[in-house]
Every structure is written in C-alpha cells, then in structure tokens.
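Aim 2, interim progress. The first record below pairs a target sequence with its structure tokens.
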Amino acid sequence: MPRHSKFWKVAVLLALGILVTGHANGQGVLLPAAGAVNRGMAGATTGTAIESIGSMIWNPATISQLPCNELAFGFEVLYSNYELSSTFPGVGSGSSDAENGAAPVPTIAWVHQTKNPYLKFGVGIAGVAGFSANLRGDLSNPILAQPLATGGTGVGGIKSDAQFFQLNPNFAVQLTDRLSIAAGPVVGLGKVTLDENPLVPANVDGTYPRGDGTRYHWGLGAQIGFHYLHNACWEFGANIKSPTWYEDFRYFSEDETGAPRTDKVDVDLPMIVSGGLGYKGFQHILLTLDVRYVGYNSAEGFGDSATYQVNGAANGLGWKDVSSISTGAQFQLTPNLITRVGYYYSTDLFDEDATFFNISSPLNFQHMVTMGGSYALNMNASISAAYNYMFDFGSTGPYDLPIGTIAGSSVTTEIDVHFAVVGLNVRY
C-alpha cells in the first residue's frame, strides 16, 4: 500500500473516532481557545499563523502563511469546581458542591495547498461552546430544596448540559506577497438539555416541564478574515464571524398531568469580531496580542433580558456583550522544543441581578493563565500539550421568581475551571 494512501486512511479513522466519542460540555459558552498550541497562547493567534487549529478557529486568512500542508488533532479535558450557595428568609442558608466531572472537547483541522499557488483550502471541526452543571437536591441548601411550586424554597436538583460544534470550510486567497483574505460558511450543531426547562411556559401547577427530550439542531453562519504582513517584524489580522443562526430548539415533554407537550426555544450563537497582531522582532521569540468582541446581547436566548413572561417562561439569561484581550508568547528553546505562555481577560458576562437565571450556566469568568509547549518528533510531526486555569469567580444576586424578587434572599455561584490539552500536528 502506498505510504500516502495509508496515511489518509489512518487520518480519517482517527477523525471519525474523535467525533463519535467526544462531546463538548465544558464551562463557558464560547471557549476562548482551541487545541494545544492555541491554548498555550491563550487563544491569541488572530494576527499570525502558528498552526492550523488556531488559524481555522480564529482567522483562516492566516493559513496562507503556513509553510506546508497540515493535519492537526486536539483533545482537551475540562474540569470545573462549582459551588452554589443560597439564603432564604425564615429558612436559613446553605452551600453545595456540584459534581460536574471531566468534559472532553475534540478539535480537528486540515490545511491543503491547491494546484493554484495562491489558493489554500482549510477546514476546522471543533467543539466551540457549552456549559454543564450537576447538583443533586439538598435540603440544607434552600435553592436546592423542593421546588417552590410544591411548597419548598428552591428548584430541586440542577442538571444542565449544552454542547455546540462547528464545521468551517474556508478558502484563503493570497492577493499579494503581504495580503491574504479568507471566507467561508460556518455550519453548527447544537444541543441544550435541562432537567427542568424554565425557558418555556410553566405548567398549570407552576412547575416546569422536562428539558431533556431534544436532539442536536442545525445552525448556519459565515465568516471573513484578512491577514497582512507589514514587515519582517510585524503582522496583523482580523476576522468577523456572523451569528450562527439555529433552527428552533424543540423539546418533547409532559405537563403536570402527564399529557404530552411540545415546546420551542430560540437559541443562537453570537457574532464574534477579532483583531490581532504578531511581533517577530526578537530571535526565537513570537509575541501575540488579540482583542475580541462577542455580541451576546443580541444572541437569541442568551442575550434576552433576565425577566419572565406572563406565562412564567424566562425570556433569556441576560448576558451582555463581552470584550476580551489575550496575549501570548512563544519561545524556541531548541530546534525541537518550543514553550508558550499566555494570559486572557474578559469583561463581565452578566450583572449580579441575573445570577438566579444563571445557576445552570455560571459562566461569568474574567482571568485565565495558560502554559504549554511542543516537541518535534521529526521534520513532519510534532506533539503538543497545554494547561489553562480559569480563576475562581463568584456572583451573587436575589431569588428572582415569576411572582417577583424575594426580599432578603440571595443566590451565590462560585466556579473555577482547569483545562488540559494534548495535540498532534502532521505536516506533509
């Protein structure tokens, strides 16, 4: 069997294996980075080409600067520590730890030079967003006691799981020796499950129907980016991803009598605008900086106001537009060994008044530090690893119910997240 034929068969089998067994349910709707190399740089690769995964996630125009064809695989595991506390007047206070466990996130990217020397094709397949929470009922913690509709002071146990994948095929065109552009569609698959679904009308008795009778739903968007080499030291890039518009998320459940009911929820992923630069003026050192804007406020489901409709359905999670900055540094220590460090900062995702609406999605993070490295196995292959830590962040707000805000009550979420990533890059 020819070597190239055997290589492609193994690559396809690996890709299928990762996609079948992996699912993204990590903390945070839009993950700030992807793959071992990009995570080592805190996601700051919009303005420079380092490897295919970072390029395909944040700016496909940079693939024009990759020196050869490349196939890359990444696999990361997210582990979160989530604590939920509450106070209810006349009842007391309590605190509970979630058991979220580890969550796997797969990533695949392929970049190929076409017969046209100025045209490259790239495709990325990745788990790009999600959240999860798993707290059992707890009579000592008011928010996790029996539901208010049945005479208790809480919502019972909390189980949530959101998973979003994207496929983004793109063509990159090198217009001049310095300027490249890229464009292509973004195809999404998303699923959101909840043990009780507060995003739909309440039952007659005040309880909410189950939110686990659903499937993956399709979404569609687009992106366009550019990359510019200013000189031997400086390079710049920018990319715009439209919102990913999904079909209505449909849920099969039952009402308070057990009769079937079908509900629909409108959920979209937000628009993302990224800009970045790279500096190569120091020997064996690459410095990068990215700024990013995420339009959560106009994303259906996430950005709708944290209020209730007359029928008891929550309008949304009350998320605000988010701005972030990430910086990365790469050091070539030896011909075979590279190390990386990075830092990520984000503005607040939601106000504290919306804390009650986000006990299933406590994603209001601000600071993350990253480190990683790569080792060249030979001229054509390298392995990479990275570790990220998203610092503990808390949010406190009152009980906010369809009947109104409960005076003297409070709900507090505290969470931190660890990311461990490994990857393989093969060039040919």
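The second target in this work package is listed in the same format:
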Amino acid sequence: MASLFAVLTPLWIPVDMLVFTHVAWVNLAFGRIVASFAFTGLVFYCRRAISLKHAYWALVILFSIPSLFFLFSHLILSNTLMSKTGMIAASSYAFLPFVMVAGISIFPLTIRESIAFVLPLLLISSLPMITSHTYMIPDFKAIAVFWLLILVATVGILSSISQLQLMHNLFTQSVIDPLTGVFNRRSGIEMIALQLALARRHHYPLALVFVDLDNFKQINDNHGHDAGDQLLVQVADAWQETLRSSDIILRWGGEEFVFLLPHTNGKGAEEFIRERCPAVQKPDATIQTYSFGVAEWLTDNITHGSALVSLADQRMYQAKIQGKNCIVGCSGNDHARSIELLNC
C-alpha cells in the first residue's frame, strides 16, 4: 500500500494545476510530494520490520500520512476561492477519509486493534466537517456524511476481523493436528529444524523422544476406532500437561508422537519420562504403556533433524523388540543403548 500511494499521490498534481489558483495548487503539490517521500520511506521501513511492534508502527505511519495530508489540504482549500469546476475537484479531497477507513479491511486485525486504528481516523475526519465548508460535504449534511463514514469503517473492521479469522483457520489446519490439538508432522519437521539450529548456535543439549503407544491396534480392533481416537486425545492432553512449557509435542502419525525437549540431554530425557510418565486409562481399564526412543544431538553427534528423528525412531523400534513399555536411550560411549522399564 505504501508503494502504491507513493506512486499515485503526486499524479493528481496536474489536476490541481488546472482547477485551483497558483498558490493553492503549489501548496497542495508540496504536500503531495512530501507525502510521497513519506510513503517511500515507509516502504524501506517495512522491509526492516521484524516484529509485531514494527508492524504496528508501520500501520500507524501508513494511516498518519494521509490523515495529515487531509488536514493540510483542508487548511489550504478552505481559504481558497474556487470556480464550480474547482469545487467539484476539491470535493474529491473529502473522500480521502473513506479511503483511509476502508483501508483497514486490507489488514488482518483483532477487534481491539481495528478500533484503535479507526477511532483516530474518524476523529481526524470529523474536524473539517465541524466548519461545514460546502466543498467538504457536497449535497449532504455533515451528520449524514459522518454517519456514512462510520458505516464504511464498520464494514472495514468486520472485513479485517474476517481476514484474521481466515488466517487463523488456515494456520490451524496446516499446523495443528485436528484430532489431538498438538502440532502435526508437517509443522513438526520445521520445528525440529528450528530447535536444532538454535541448539547448535547456542550449544545447548536438545533431546528428541520418539513415542509409540503399545498395543494400540488392539484398542481399535476390540473397542472401535472412536475409542482409539479418544485414547489418542487423552494421551496428548496428559502429555501436554506433563511436559514443560518450553517442550514441544508433535503427533507424528497414527499412534506415534515426538517430544522435543530443549536444554535436556539424553539421560535427563530418560529420567524425565520415567518420573513423569502420565497414567492414562485404556477402555479396558488398564494403564496405557509406551515405547520410547531417545536421541540427543550432542551425545549422538547428529546435526540434521531428519537424522535425529530417524535415530530416535530406530531406538523406539528397539524398545518394541525388547518387550515394549521401556526406553531405549543414548549414552556417550559409541551410541550405546540402555533399556529401562517404565512404571507407568
């Protein structure tokens, strides 16, 4: 939008030259050129925006520039004698507030954010209406124009909120597992890569735990898939409550989950699982058990996320072979495995 306004704003100068006095169009041209440079500066600022705070400031600047130009143009035109053609051209400046409040609809904002941006625009737009200059309100009373402006602003706010909701839904569908509510495999691959990159940069341990529910197929066969789905939800909820706020749980597929444990080495991950394993009851009233495979990038000397997952997966299958309900972990001596029975 800033790029578009930077180009379009000065293009109206020839029209002002044709219909206004020399003093009026020169002052308006000066205002348009300043606004165009301001929009251009905003373009470069947006390229360096790296946080939500920067984004807020970019929006504030984006709507402040036309608002200030609107007040500047009103000051110029309200003291200018104009012909009928000039009156028609000047009335076009009255539509700038409508463009500004309608522009809110382009951005995905919350209700609070939308109102925070719209209210100052409505206040600024109402200032010239108080003077009731005829060029500002052609064929309408000021109250009618302002009411229409409020209606446009309301539609813009609703559109902005709808965009945010749509983005939220798309994000949820692409990132969140619809059954368990935890992150899905697609987003998990990116998270593993990101967490591993951070761990390598700051050289802290990062453990990855591959988890498989023992004898899950029997649940589906004996109690139905709905019971199996419900068990998966209970397991995901239980582990989310058990894991630390900095840990990440992913549903890898079927009855398989992956835990990412930052600042945790292999031994710490094994101890954490053994001590904190939640007791989730199956439909047959027995406690659900798990097979765990643990890998840790420093201990196992692995620098790629896919290799870390693959190693943890292999160790999980070893836990299955060893009789399930156990952990196959890692140690510092040539990737030696340790088998530890769980009490969950």
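Residues 2-175 form one domain. This observation will shape the mutagenesis plan for the next reporting period.
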